[in-house]
Amino acid sequence: MQASEASTDVIIVGAGPVGLFAVFELGLAKLKAHVVDILDKPGGQCAELYPEKPIYDIPGLPFCTGQELTDRLLEQIRPFEPVFHFGEMVEALTRTVDGKWRLTTDTGRVLIAPVVVIAAGGGSFVPKRPPIPGIEAYEGKSVFYAVRRIDAFRGRRIVIAGGGDSALDWTVNLAPMAGQLTLVHRRPEFRAAPDTVRKMRELEEQGLVRFELGQPAELKGSDGKLDAVVIKRTDGSTFDIESDTLLPFFGLTMKLGPIANFGLNLNENLIPVDTAKFETSTQAVFAIGDINSYSGKLKLILSGFHEAALMAQAAHRYVHPDKTLRFQYTTSSSELQRLLKVA
Amino acid sequence: MFVTVHMPDGATHRLEALEGWRVMEVIRDWGLPIKAECGGACACATCHVWVGEEWLAKLVPPTAEELEMLDGAFQVDERSRLCCQIIMSKELDGLVVELAPESLADAPPERLAVGG
Ligand SMILES: Cc1cc2nc3c(=O)[nH]c(=O)nc-3n(C[C@H](O)[C@H](O)[C@H](O)COP(=O)(O)OP(=O)(O)OC[C@H]3O[C@@H](n4cnc5c(N)ncnc54)[C@H](O)[C@@H]3O)c2cc1C
Ligand code: FES
Predict the structure, then answer these.
(1) How many domains does chain B have?
(2) Residues A41-58: pLDDT tens digits?
(3) Is A57 left (phi over 0), alpha (psi -120 to 50) or beta?
(4) Which of A115, A218, B75, B98 is 20 to 30 Å from the Cα of B47, by its Cα?
(5) Inter-chain contact B76–A186, Cβ cutoff 8 Å?
């Protein structure tokens, strides 16, 4: 784990549409931003839940898909050169001795800034945990929801459960080095790239992959050490697969996650803010988008955009207490147009 | 018309439903804790229910998209449906569903303001 440390003006937690637009509003105020997201791509719910579905209520954009909105936001914020850290979970937020914020992620990254903006939406996207009794005890020892180092799985007797891209990709990638690999899925069809499915079938023919119809129902073992996964067939009958490793890939779900431990006020998993600055009850920590709550809040993208604009004004006062921010239009201000790299 | 929902904790609710509404919306709008993360876009599988055996034949069969999304649910069997894809109609008056444990929300959604 390579620890790395960087300083910036503002750290944004969450690269959903609202976190992305915050980069823009901060950029107009000449503030630089780093953006962290546990997903491996920008766009939050728009990109993860409905990339191909339509949105009709973005002002001035009669129609766009979740992915199109994400792409347009990325284009809009490009002049401000945000630094993205994808695939990283923000784990802790603490004060430094000189009154700045120190944010750490699960890869050991450290970011320092005077202002933090929580744009965590519906929470962090994390893998779904199968409702298997006692599975928690195996997690991290025998049950893993992600593969960081392929090498750690060499020689292991692996069961992969699921039928999507992750399940199929890891089946294909781990089969050559696994001691034994069984893919378990509830039906013979897969929702994965056809090419990967073809490769999986080839590996099956070569005897490197075994495919079983069913769903994991029970784990056998002790002290977190797995001995077998009990598989339930559609007809209700069960059988054991002897194995020491289970990799369940059933997609992602939203969980508030570590933000709950940041010491911020929380109300039913939302962060209360004022409606002039969208600041939390903790100084210089703002919350915008779906994660915040205030009287009359609507969980709409356009509301989050408005919140980002007001937040940026207040953030500027924290980063540059000695400077005043002049109100200007992008249409007519040559200064803003220089920042946007159009003049 | 009504929908009966068995919750994972054993509680049973008989909910008034309106024609044309998704069963997920009926459950959510009555304030019961259903995750339904994607709001009915058939994109999350956190509105998984088991439909009462006797109702299966009356339902519009699942689309390929729904079957694919069900891959992201647990303990899926032939009674499994994503209830955001079940639209209430006269034939479904009295429908019985059981909410799958993984589709139970941690905290109930905000109650909708109801007039009158
Ligand atoms: C199917 C569907 C259709 C919708 N249609 C519309 C519509 O038509 N119009 C509209 O206005 N809105 C719509 N919405 C709502 C809209 O998508 C949300 O309001 C919007 O995505 C909120 O943006 P956000 O940036 O606040 O949060 P999100 O989009 O939820 O993004 C938050 C990001 O923060 C990340 N994150 C959270 N915690 C951490 C952490 N600790 N570490 C690292 N990363 C973290 C998450 O992984 C996520 O990527 C729809 C939603 C859905 C599901
Ligand atoms: S609410 Fe997401 S699939 Fe039904």
Answers:
(1) 1
(2) 999 999 999 999 999 999
(3) alpha
(4) A218
(5) yes
Reported as a single tens digit per residue, the pLDDT across A152-206 is 999 999 999 999 999 999 999 999 999 999 999 999 999 999 999 999 999 999 9
In a domain, B47, yes or no: yes
Domain that holds residue B59: 2-111
Domains A5-126+253-339 and A129-250 share a fold: yes
Alpha-carbon distance of A40 to B76, in angstroms, equals 28
CATH 3.50.50.60 fits A5-126+253-339, yes or no: yes
Residue that the structure tokens 């960081």 belong to: A148
- The pTM score is 0.90
Domain boundaries, chain A: 5-126+253-339, 129-250
Ligand 2 pocket, residue B47 CB under 6 Å: yes
Task: Judge whether A125 and A227 are in contact, CB under 8 Å.
Answer: no
Contact A131 B35 (CB under 8 A): no
Ligand 1: list residues with CB < 6 Å.
A 13-19, 36-39, 44-46, 49-50, 53, 55, 57, 89-90, 119-125, 257-259, 289-290, 299-302, 304; B 38-39, 41, 43
Let me know if domain A129-250 sits in CATH 3.50.50.60. Answer: yes
Q: Give the span between the Cα atoms of A85 and A14, in whole angstroms.
A: 10
ipTM score assigned to the predicted complex: 0.87
Residue B116 inside a domain? The answer is: no
B31 burial via Cβ count (<10 Å: 0-12, 13-18, 19+): middle
Q: What is the rounded distance in angstroms from the CA atom of residue B96 to the CA atom of residue B81? A: 12
CATH code for the domain of B81: 3.10.20.30
Q: What phi-psi label fits residue A264: left (phi over 0), alpha (psi between -120 and 50 degrees) or beta?
A: beta
Residue from the list B37, B68, B76 with its beta carbon closest to the beta carbon of A254: B37
